[in-house]
Amino acid sequence: MSIQTRIVEYSDGTTQFKGYLAWDDSINGPRPGVLIAHTWAGRSDHEGEKARKLAELGYVGFAIDMYGEGKLGTGVEECSAMMQPLLADRATLQQRINLALDTARQLPEVDTHRIAAMGFCFGGLCVLDLARSGADLQGVVSFHGLFTAPGNTEGNKISAKVLCLHGYDDPLVPAQSIIDLGDELTTAGADWQIHAYGGTVHAFTRPDANDPDFGAVYNPSADRRSWQSLLNFLAEIFA
What we know:
The chain has a single domain, classed as 3-Layer(aba) Sandwich (Rossmann fold). 35% of the residues lie in helices and 26% in strands. It contains 6 helices and 10 strands. An 8-stranded mixed beta sheet has the order 1-2-4-3-5-6-7-8, with helices on both faces. It has a two-stranded antiparallel ribbon with strand order 9-10. The longest helix is centred in the last third of the chain and has 18 residues, at 220-237. It is globular.
């Protein structure tokens, strides 16, 4: 096994994006690809590590860039300032993540008929919006993602299977949001699952998360369980 990585640049004409690709070059031919959407901080080594872990399992991991130029933020104010414009303009958010999907389809390492997307926090919302937009891919997985409906996808059918991995006590996504999302996905005809972990708040997959006042704390059990759920889901949708 030899895990290779490279930066993949793509553009919407006005903004240049920098994704991070990881694959095992001992495997011949195209294989299933998994997009990885980042937290509000931008594409970091957290997403890069997940791309490499997926590559070790025989997938192609593609950590995408939703902000452009590989922009990274530090601190609540800076990260919020980068994220808010896309939360306020979900059509642009959807356009950007669909562009990342189209880019992945053109990569020689990726099987164009077997693609999924996963995302963390803000990235969880991004991959849910990818599914809501009606994109043609096998599945999406949200890790402690935001569930708020975009307001511009009513009436769309969701063909991608959906898995949401959620901290039940996440103060950013109250329990009513779980019910609302389930109703939304059912109306859209989706094949969906929501796994809620008790005693678990936001950012439970992040070992560096330790801010109880903000409601973001690492939970090793939920981290381990959610990763196993991801692997089970990928095995199912790519079978």
